[in-house]
Amino acid sequence: MPSVASYALHAVDGSFERTMIERREVGPHDVNIEIHYAGICHSDIHTGRGEWGTVPYPQVTGHEIAGIVESVGSEVTKYAVGDRVGVGCLVDSCRECDQCKAGNEMFCKKSVGTYNDTDRYGSQTQGGYSSHIVVDENYVLRIPEALALDVAAPLLCAGITLYSPLARWQAGPGKRVAVAGLGGLGHMGVKIAVAMGADVTVITRSEAKAQDALRLGAHHALVTENPDVFKTNANSFDLILNSISASINLADYLRLLDNCGTMVYVGAPEHPMPLDIGSLIMGNRGLAGSNIGGIRETQEMLDFCATHGFGSDIEVISAQQIDDAWNRVVAGDVRYRFVIDNSTI
Ligand code: NAP
Ligand code: ZN
Ligand code: ZN
C-alpha cells in the first residue's frame, strides 16, 4: 500500500505531527488525487479534540479537499489525469438504497465519512491534511475553471452545508434570511443567500464582523453583544440558518423568527441545549437541522458559486501552522476559513 505524508493528531490533547499514513492501491474505479489545498472546518476540531466522542489516533482530519488528479483506475470514466477536483465529507455509500439513488448519500446507512470512519475495505478513513487521497470516482467533484483551487476547497463542506438548506427552504427574493455566526459556514451562507436573491441579515457577536458582513453582501447585521437586539428585532425573519459552534440560548434566536418561520441548525455544538418550548409554540415556529448535502447537490453548488463568481474568503497557512489555526478558529478569529497549502506537508 502506498504511504503518503500527512499531518496527524496522536492524542486528544496532542498537537499535529508530520506522519506517514497508508492509502489503498488505486482500484479500477478510484481516482488518486494530489491534494493542493485543504480547508479547516470546525468539525475537524470537534472531532480531533474528542468533543463528539472518542476517536482513534493517529487522526488525520480535513474534508474540504481540492487538488489535481494524479492517476486513475482502469475503469474510471468521469475523470482524467490533470483534472481539477474536490472531495467533501463523504467518500462512499452503498449506492443501492433509496437515499443513494435520490442523491442523498449522507442519509445512507452505509455512508463513509472522509475521516474518522471505516471504509468498505475495513480501513480507517483519513482526511485531507495529507498529500494524496484515493477516492471512488462517484464521490469526486469537478471544480469549475472559474474557481481557484484554494478558494474552492471550503465549498466542499462549508459551501454545501449552507447551500442545501437555503435551497430546500427556498431562500430567494422576498425571503428574510438571517445567518447566525459569521464563521466558515456563516460567511458562505451570506454569499449564497445573497446570490439567491434573499434579504440577508448577519447575526454576530462582533461589531467588526458586522461591518464586514456588509462587505460580503449582507443587507443588515445584528450584534448580539447588546442583548436588547433580541427584543428589538423579534419576529423579523422567515428563515434563520444557525451555524454557531457553541451552546446558546435557543429561545433568544427562535423569537427573532416571524410567525411560521424556521430556524435551521447546521452548527453542531459539543453539549445539548435546553429549549424553552414556548418560543416555538408562540408564533408556530419551526426548528430543524441540516446535514451537509449529497454528491449531486454538491456539484450543483460548485457550479452555482462559479456562475456567481465567488469562492470562500480564506487565509492560506502552512501545515506547520495548523495547531495555531485551530486555536484561532475556536476563538472566532478567522476571516473566514483557514486553508492549508498542502505542498508544505
Ligand atoms: P467557525 O468558523 O468556528 O464559526 C462558528 C461561529 O460561531 C463563529 O464564527 C462565531 O460567530 C459563532 N460562535 C462561536 N462561539 C459562539 C458563542 N459562544 N456564542 C455565539 N456565537 C458563537 O465554525 P464553522 O466551521 O463555520 O462550523 C460551525 C459549526 O457547524 C460547527 O459546530 C461545525 O461542527 C458545524 N458543522 C456542521 C455541518 C453540518 O453538516 N451540519 C457541516 C460543517 C460544520 P461570530 O464570531 O460571528 O459571533
Ligand atoms: Zn465540515
Ligand atoms: Zn445507500
CATH homologous superfamily of the largest domain? Medium-chain alcohol dehydrogenases, catalytic domain
Bound molecules: NADP nicotinamide-adenine-dinucleotide phosphate, zinc ion
Distance between the termini: 20 Å
State the domain count: 2
Structural class: alpha/beta
CATH level-3 fold name of the largest domain: Quinone Oxidoreductase, Chain A, domain 1
Mean pLDDT: 97
Globular, elongated, flat, extended or rod-shaped: what is the shape? globular
The second-level CATH architecture of the largest domain is Alpha-Beta Complex
In total, the number of strands is 17
Strand content: 25-35%
Radius of gyration: 20 Å
Could you name the CATH class of the largest domain? Answer: Alpha Beta
Uncertain residue segments: none
Q: What's the helix-strand series?
A: EEEHEEEHEEEHHEHEHEHEHEHEHEHE
Portion in helices: 10-25%
Largest sheet: 7 strands, mixed
